[in-house]
Amino acid sequence: MICFPTSKINIGLHVINKREDGFHNIETIFYPVGLGDILECVENTKYNIQDKCQFIASGLKISGDVNQNLVVKAYQVLDNDFDLPPVLVNLHKQVPMGAGLGGGSSDAAFMLSLLNDLFELRLTVPQLEKYASTLGSDCAFFIQNKPAYVFGKGHELTQIDISLAGLHLVLIHTGKHSSTAQAYAHVLKRGSLIPGETVKDAVQLPYKQWQFHLFNDFEPSVFKFIPELAKIKNWLYQQGAIYAAMSGSGSCMFGLFTDKPKLNGEFAAHVIHGEELK
Questions:
Q1: How many domains does the chain have?
Q2: Pick the catalytic residue: 37, 107, 138, 217?
Q3: Residue 191 has pLDDT above 90, yes or no
Q4: What pLDDT, in 10s, does the model give residues 7-49?
Q5: Is the same domain home to 112 and 190?
Q6: What are the CA-CA distances from residue 2 to residues 42, 110, 126 (Å)?
Q7: The whole model's pTM is what?
Q8: Residues 92 and 117 in one domain
Q9: Could you tell me the CATH number of the domain that includes residue 181?
């Protein structure tokens, strides 16, 4: 069985305060986009392999211990409750890591849904979201993969009526890696939510006003460590974007355009994805 985990962009991102559990309270909007990976999983009926989940990766390099990969952990969390048959898994990675696009979280959520279908576990959407939330703060979003207002430490979400249909999206990634831990360590926290200035309020404004009301709080500090990202944001506006921002804690930048852009100049070669949003 094969599936195609997608990615997301953040439309606005406010960092409110630090929680007692060490995480941070945030608010943001996740919007799914088409750039994605390819994930295949089949039951292993042929090979006598010690690991119940035999994981192979291709495409972009995946760093870290294989056993710590979220796809493997997704299998393990269901295996603990359902004693799943052994599987062979291949992940073809196309979403860059450390880009703020949620690629790893998406892979995990889609793996849960894939296993649910493959082995007819009959798990409901809320049950899948509960399993996903144990794997990472933003994993649950990718179970339904619909625009959502995300709050708390990033694990609480509600569906939001927002559509970017007809707008053209461009993703820019130069290969620079942004450290999430570093981003949180240096971000200027807001302290509290102010009615009328929340992300959920600002996103109701016309697109062309977003750049004056929708902010990613990580940008000032991350831009200090990776000045190139500030240049990319300015370049996107020069190219005609109606809104440009960093996704998550970086380092992918995105631009929204009313018409399909004809990009030229310094960063045109670093476009990793473009699409007309649905």
A1: 2
A2: 138
A3: no
A4: 999 999 999 999 998 889 999 999 999 999 999 999 999 888 8
A5: no
A6: 9, 10, 22
A7: 0.94
A8: yes
A9: 3.30.70.890
- Residue 4 has a pLDDT of 98
Torsion angle of C-alpha atoms 104, 107, 111, 113, degrees rounded to 10: 110
Q: Quick one: pLDDT at residue 65?
A: 83
Q: What percentage of residues in the chain have a pLDDT greater than 90?
A: 87
Could you give the residue ranges of the DSSP H alpha helices within the chain? 70-82, 103-118, 125-133, 141-144, 180-186, 199-202, 210-213, 219-225, 228-238
Domain boundary among 159, 190, 213: 159
Task: Based on the residue annotation, tell me whether 81 is a catalytic residue of this protein.
Answer: no
Tell me how far apart the alpha carbons of residues 174 and 253 are, in angstroms, rounded to a whole number.
Answer: 9
Do 133 and 225 lie in a common domain?
no
Token pair listed for 244:
């440009």
Catalytic residue among 8, 93, 176, 233: 8
CA distance 145 to 88: 25
Residue 104 lies in domain: 2-159
Does 8 participate in catalysis according to the annotation?
yes
What CATH number should be reported for the domain holding residue 57?
A: 3.30.230.10
Single-letter residue type at 149: Y
127: helix, strand or coil: helix
